[in-house]
Write a structure and sequence with these properties.
The protein has strands at residues 4-10, 17-22, 27-32, 35-40, 45-51, 57-62, 68-72, 77-85, 88-97, 104-110, 114-119, 123-128, 135-140, 146-151, 157-161, 165-170, 175-181, 191-194, 197-201, 205-210, 216-221, 228-234, 238-243, 247-252, 258-263, 269-274, 279-284, 289-294. It is built from no helices and 28 strands.
């Protein structure tokens, strides 16, 4: 293995997704049940708590407008303002958006002062990033629940679903320009772009797709992992994969060869994110363990 464990924290609840950083304080985010707890590294010191969702929080982003947007199994999206007082972050819900009719799995900021959301109701919604955060339009193509969305470097929005399709959307025309079939997208962190290639974490494989011509380049088989939940790129062209069976898998992104595995002795590594060039965080939902690693 090329990664060394630096520190861990075990949470009392099992559903955990390591998520983005709040750039103001460089704090990682962990979500569990309807509460979001914010910790500083490397000592996992709690810097603040966000409460307000009625069910599991699926995803969180900090926007360029210095707001926080969260989405949840309670079918809602919430926009938060935050200030810092007495060494603690204070969060206030500015607005709750209720247009989705099922669990909202991910929110991302996109071009032109907008953000996008995807839901188990099989739709994508495009929103105004500024108050009053109205929904501009809804994209419909998928036949079942969406798990992830990502805006590619060429401006195209890509969406993944449990309906075994990957859709590529032109946001200027609001049309789905291409559908790739027989590709399963496991979770919110299963889409990743690098060097004009889209990587999709699926069932026992990662699918590499060219974003120039939307052709599948390779099916990278990941033995005995079942679902590939999360993908990030480490330095030296290493693609790190988090799996259902608790494996952290290092792949050489140029050859797609396995460079080593770490077994976390748990399951469902739902979250991976880079803290810096040398450090990353993983989160396992089965045992509630969040780990800081040095690469």
């Amino acid at each position: 293995s090329q990664s060394k464990l630096v520190n861990t924290k075990k949470f009392s609840m099992s559903w955990i997704i390591a998520n983005k950083l709040i750039q103001q304080n460089q704090n990682p985010i962990f979500t569990q049940s309807g509460t979001i707890e914010i910790y500083s590294l490397p000592l996992f010191q709690c810097e603040g708590i966000i409460t307000g969702h009625a069910n599991i929080v699926n995803y969180l982003i900090e926007t360029s407008t210095h707001k926080i947007i969260t989405c949840s199994y309670d079918n809602t999206i919430k926009i938060w303002t935050y200030t810092r007082k007495n060494n603690t972050n204070i969060y206030k819900c500015e607005k709750t958006l209720t247009e989705h009719i099922s669990s909202v799995h991910q929110v991302i900021e996109i071009n032109d002062n907008k953000f996008a959301s995807c839901s188990w109701d099989s739709t994508i919604k495009i929103w105004n990033l500024k108050f009053p955060y109205e929904c501009y339009y809804t994209l419909k193509q998928h036949k079942s629940g969406l798990t992830s969305i990502l805006q590619l470097s060429n401006g195209i929005l890509v969406s993944g679903s449990v309906d075994y399709t990957i859709c590529f959307w032109d946001l200027k025309t609001q049309n789905c320009d291409r559908v790739i079939s027989d590709v399963y997208c496991c979770s919110q962190n299963s889409l990743y772009e690098y060097n004009k290639v889209l990587y999709v974490g699926g069932i026992n494989e990662i699918v590499a797709i060219s974003i120039d011509n939307y052709q599948i380049i390779s099916h990278i088989m990941i033995n005995s992992t079942h679902y590939v939940y999360s993908l990030i790129l480490l330095r030296d062209n290493n693609l790190l994969c988090g799996s259902q069976k608790g494996n952290l898998i290092h792949l050489d992104i140029s050859t797609y060869k396995n460079k080593g595995n770490i077994n976390m002795k748990g399951e469902n590594i739902l979250g991976l994110f880079n803290v810096s060039e040398d450090y990353f965080v993983s989160a396992s939902s089965s045992d509630g363990v969040v780990s800081l690693w040095k690469y």
